[in-house]
Amino acid sequence: MQPATPAAVAAGLREAGYRVTVNAPAAGEAPSLSVVAGKYELDMWFSGCQAGSCARVTVSLGWELGADDPDLAFLNEWNSDAFTQAYVYEDAYYLDSTLTLRGGHTRAALRAWLSDYLSDVAEFGARLP
Question: Pfam families annotated for this entry (predicted)?
Fold first, then answer.
């Protein structure tokens, strides 16, 4: 069992072959990571952190909308049948997933979570309107 810390998550992702940068948090901000997974540059941030231990980690990737209006029917359909959550924010589609860390995590669970997320990223990106 790995501790629920940003350092443990970063180490587990590096061990799995991802390129990870630990971002220095600004005052009052939660810890975050930048993760390169193949052709994707992912943002990860931690929440519910106290004394260096965090309750959750969330991964996110965005796609610009361009000149088109967001397709809310597409987002609703995706969200009704997917583990990840899709939404629109500031003229971009986003796809997020959150892993609970409270109590610790295994590296196998961390790898499976990110692998599942990346599968959804590929499918979501291919289906974008």
Answer: YbjN
